[in-house]
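Notebook entry, structure prediction.
Reason for the run: the old model in the group folder had no record of what sequence produced it. Starting over properly, with the input documented here first.
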Amino acid sequence: MTELFPTVRTLVLMGAFLLSLTGLAQTDSVATTTCHQADGRTYRGRVTHNGIMEGNTELSFRDGACHLRVGRGWGFSPGQYACEQESGGMRVTSRLESRSQGHLNVDVLLLDGTVDGHFDWEKPGQHALRFDLSGRIQEDPTVP
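New structure, fully documented this time:
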């Protein structure tokens, strides 16, 4: 498996990004509830930072948890997700945690087989970094 973000610069940027995620997973303007409505869905997409392509990743939902492939390499555990119907789609928020790397706050809109949003990386002592994520649902070839 190739490293998605192999450079030290990227690690520093992701650390700052995670710091910005704290508190973004839920806002006063959007009521959220823990749900399983996105379970079974997997999206593949591109990750950018400040408009620069950083790589590809996979975002999936299983057993009430949000999984972000790019975060696994740094020890981010899947996190419960909350959702709310919005703009004809579903807004999903989640917080993934790592003991050494801080938090990843995920905020995406699932609409018509697409995913569009961001994840913020907050790491103690560093500025938060925002990464944009956009992609399409991955069809399961085992489902007719």
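Summary: The beta strands are 33-34, 42-49, 52-62, 65-68, 79-86, 89-98, 102-111, 114-122, 129-137.
The old model has been moved to the deprecated folder.
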